[in-house]
Amino acid sequence: MSMQYDYKDIEKISKYKSWSRRKIVDALLSIDSDMYTQLGLESTPKEIKQTKIKSKNIYKTISKVNPRLGKLFLQSMDN
What we know:
This protein is an all-alpha fold. About 70% of the residues lie in helices and about 0% in strands.
């Protein structure tokens, strides 16, 4: 991907008509991955919790594009 997206872009990305479902899911997972890689040993419990909440929102957005995959991600979060 040539552009760098972040969490505030998830809704916009999910509505791109010119992108394939796979490209949308890949972009959303890339945002999710970036959020977790920015956490570190010095991250506060609040920051970790906020990241998990954002991650769950990303997975809900993925489930709008690919219901089966989104459901799997959400189930894995609950375990």
